[in-house]
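Standup notes
- HV: blocked on the assembly model, inputs below
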Amino acid sequence: MLGRSANGIYWMARNLERAENTARLLDVGFRMALTRGAQAAKEEWRSVLVTIGQDLDYRARFDEHTGPQVFNFILRGPDNPASVLAMVENARTNARAVRTAITREVWEATNECWMALRDLLARPVRESNIGEVLTMIRRQTTQVRGAMDGTMLRNEIFNFARIGTFIERADNTARILDVKYYVLLPSVAWVGSSLDNAQWETVLRSVAGDRAYRWLNAGSMDSRGIAEFLILDGRFPRSLTFCYAKLRSNLGGLSRQHGLETAAHGLLREAGSRLHETTIDAIFERGLHEFITEFIADTLLIGEAIAADYRFIE
Amino acid sequence: MQSDSRATYDEMHHPDGAVRSAYAGFREWYDEQDRGWLKKQDVEAERFFRRTGITFNVYGEDAGEERLIPFDMIPRIITAREWRKLSRGIEQRVRALNAFLHDLYHRQEIVRAGRFPERLLRGNDAFLRQMVGLTPPGGVYTHVVGIDLVRTGPDEFMVLEDNARTPSGVSYMLENRETMMAMFPELFSRVAVRPVSDYPRRLAHSLAACAPEAVRGSGRPVVAVLTPGIFNSAYFEHAFLADQMGAELVEGSDLRVVDGRIAMRTTRGYRPIDVIYRRVDDEYLDPLSFHPDSVLGVAGIMDIYRAGRVTIANAPGTGIADDKAIYSFMPEIVEFYTGEKPLLNNVPTWRCGEPEALKHVLDNLKDLVVKEVHGSGGYGMLIGPAASRREIARFAKKLRARPENYIAQPTLSLSTVPIFTKAGLAPRHVDLRPFVLVSPGGIDITPGGLTRVALKKGSLVVNSSQGGGTKDSWVLED
């Protein structure tokens, strides 16, 4: 396949995954605003902006972190090139550019996703319909993933799409964990202490892991356990370990299809074994923030190596 | 521009209102259908097109916005007998076009014989000096041609325009049929219509047959579709055809010269291409030979082409045949190269560069259609009957300043086919663009083509860029 098409399908998947994860984060912010009063909500909205790296841009335009202002900026801000609408638009542009590499159903799902959100986000979102908007984003992006899963040939095109999905998801989960810890644990001394359950639930909820975690831990919440779940539990589809296992299998697919490994395989193997060998105690001993910073940097490097090895651009 | 309804040929009905035999089967089916259901299907069709992304980009206003070409569900029907006659005429014309192009870029016998004025080539940007003396692989210039036809009577089809450069619209021909078959499957079991769906296969086959000598016959030549990219008005079609042919859809930035061949950048490195079905204009094809700042083409492709190591379809320089001043010589051209009388007539045309013709045109502007010789897509033309006095005066000034830049034609009374409206069937003017494939193996015409329809009552402008729509075009089985 063309290097440019590999680049296109990779970024199509990344953009959709990012849009979905952003919707999940917003959902948590919205829930906090409903249940926790003004101050907690304000903090939550700010942490959403910090997590997706848009707080500086936001503050350049607005003074206050009020709900509708924040979620409209993130969802559809006309001067926000990283809005959810822009992500979905980018995903569709990518899909259009690789039209011959995807099935008709994947194209239609992507196109419909964009059309639905464009219509839904044509006017400012209000508190009365934000729930509907976020559900729609999740549902539409899920449909694209389903169409990929159900109709695409398991060739290198599919592998590049999956690699995009899991590079993005690994990055997003890591960022959520990093920021939430920072917000929820003002000092290291708090680690391990019993905290407000409802707050910790927001971490889990923003990666759709609240039910699974409760089920596995009989309802009790503790910060270390949650970190372990999000980082090391290979059964949870948004954990760092799970994302890396998928990357390994899809990159492995590429090396079989091409008959050779590249620099990216080496990088993934190293980073993957570091993740595999560590324990939650070791992570906290070194510092969660340091661990995550390194993980995000590793993931970035792997993504860059894939782009170079497979000739995404000239 | 408005038509004169008295002289208009209605393709579905006789003047007394009886249904013509071509439409008998369809009409019988149509009359049995529930109107409310048909209306629902009409809305459904639009939704179907939007979802599948069949859109085109419009240049100018609202640049970059994607729009749908409206689809009308009443088919345009041509009988087997009419089609046989038409295809003979089309084949003759396309044969002549290829011979003409070869001659223009070689000995120019037609000029020497005094049958074609050399001045039409001088200073004409569409005439590429880079092509002089060069014979394309297989000797084919126009791999894909679209001949625009209009009908004025029972057996009167005329050629309005030749599209030898890069005819577009074939994806609509295919999708229109797909849509009709999805909406009204039982209709096709009642009326025997010749299929069009194998066009992409025939295109792939025809292009492969034009591959450079060295690879022809030896295994499978690699074919790629070269697109300017997603912002081009016909991008959907480029992607569609590549997809249907199983060919790569490439952009200029994917290509470069590697070991004396054109190669595309794949995830495994550069891989050579044998045939490039390009949808990029000549002047952007090679920054070394044409526009130095073009990023749409491939630096050095003309050298590889000259060395016979890649096929470019259509060949560079074929656009000269689309020139409307040259069009006016088509009857002479057909006769010169085939030794036969043309089977398909031209629309009568005045070349404004000739003083007598110019005088006639200026005296009759309000009744004429005046076109730029290099224009296309319905842009930059004057439609006399629809223009205001001021517009006519302004156009006359332009015409006097550069008469050789224009041709004029009478306002024809184009035939009509009904469209489906809320109030029932209503006649609208149509044209027809059949698609023709050329290879050393022969000339292959897909039965039917693209019918464009003016959706406004009385309007004669069918261009999609100007609010026209399309119809499924049927050629009946014998």
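- HV (later): unblocked. Residues 3-35 of chain A form the longest helix (33 residues). The interface with chain B takes residues 1-4, 6, 93, 96-97, 99-100, 104, 107-108, 111-112, 115, 156, 258, 310-311, 314 of chain A (CB under 8 Å).
- Next: hand off to the docking folks.
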